Amino acid sequence: MPRRALLDYRPWLLASLLAGVTYFFVMDDQIGGLWLMLWKGAGVAFLAMYAALRGRGTDGVLIAMVMALGAAGDMGIELDLRLGGALFAAGHLLAIALYLRNRREKTTGSQKLAAVALAVFTPLLGALMTYPQPNWQIAAGYSLVVGVMAAFAWTSRFPRYRVGMGAVLFVVSDLLIFAREGGAMSEDATQWLIWPLYYAAQFLIATGVVQTLRRDPV
Fold first, then answer.
1. Contact criterion met (CB below 8 Å) for 147 and 171
2. Taking 90 as the threshold, does the pLDDT of residue 90 lie above it?
3. What does residue 26 show for φ and ψ, rounded to 5 degrees?
4. What does the pLDDT read at residue 9?
């Protein structure tokens, strides 16, 4: 069974890594068009396939849908920032449902404090970075959703230094986008950070959740 699992499912992770890493080197191609948009979405789309085939039960379906919406968001954001944001927000809401279904039995005071900080300071920073740009309220509202997602990921039963840290990296990548869009940071300072942080976040979340589900009793 381990050998068969390796042969059947590892290619999806390898394909994801190949697409995600190589996109970093071509993302500034000004003539990429549709093919570059599909290339961008492929990294997380392969993670969605991995989760769909390797996950178990309702939670497996949820993490596959989270990744699928993430891939759609990757492509949608190339067409319109609000469209991409809406797709990501939908994925975050499903992720919140997943983490609520998998709460950690015991959490320490420091873990609870970290979760509260993520839920409170993420929207605050999102608002500060985009105000008074048009639609800064939308950025703040989205930041609230991603901050709450990260808070519940941090207090879930999934590995904190994979799923929890992945969610935190997701927060950081989104805040860098808002810093760029709001003029708080230059594009030169953010363009080399956003994609690696985001893709690492999705990879850590997908693999951390799926591998935990695989260890559950059937």
1. yes
2. yes
3. -120, 0
4. 62
The whole-model pTM stands at: 0.93
pLDDT of residue 151: 98
- The Cβ-side half-sphere exposure at 107, using a 13 Å CA radius, reads 21
Q: Where are the alpha helices (DSSP H) in 27-135?
A: 33-54, 57-79, 81-101, 109-130
Contact between 53 and 12 (Cβ < 8 Å) = yes
Q: What single DSSP character describes residue 185?
A: S
The span from the CA of 91 to the CA of 179, in Å, is 22
Q: How far apart are CA 148 and CA 167, in angstroms?
A: 10
d(CA 171, CA 180): 14
The partner residues of 103 in beta bridges, in order of sequence, read 156
Q: How far is CA 32 from the centre of its chain?
A: 24
pLDDT digits 0-9 by tens, 106-146: 999 999 999 999 999 999 999 999 998 888 999 999 999 99
Nearest Cα residue to 75 out of 67, 84, 66: 84
Q: What are phi and psi of 103, to 5 degrees?
A: -70, 145
Domain ranges of the chain: 2-215
Q: Check if the beta carbon of residue 78 is closer than 8 Å to that of residue 40.
A: yes
